[in-house]
């Protein structure tokens, strides 16, 4: 009978951030002040791919902002509040048929 060796490293599970929470590192490192336009935000953050679900599906910030329907944001909170429903819609849609099939495969 064999016993597994103890795992190395920390015991805390890795967390996966998606949605507006995934933007925190970009916002904290960017030289961005508000009020700001969508174009200024995309330039300052580098148009990152934002994960919108736990399956690691992503959408470009510029694409998500195009769906917001607002181009000027008075504060970071207003920006995040406007972006949240768009990312939730992406999450709810499941990323399309291809993403759903890929999620079912074991590899």
Automatic annotation (TrEMBL):
One Pfam assignment: DUF5789
InterPro entries reported in the protein's UniProt record: DUF5789
Protein name, UniProt field: DUF2795 domain-containing protein
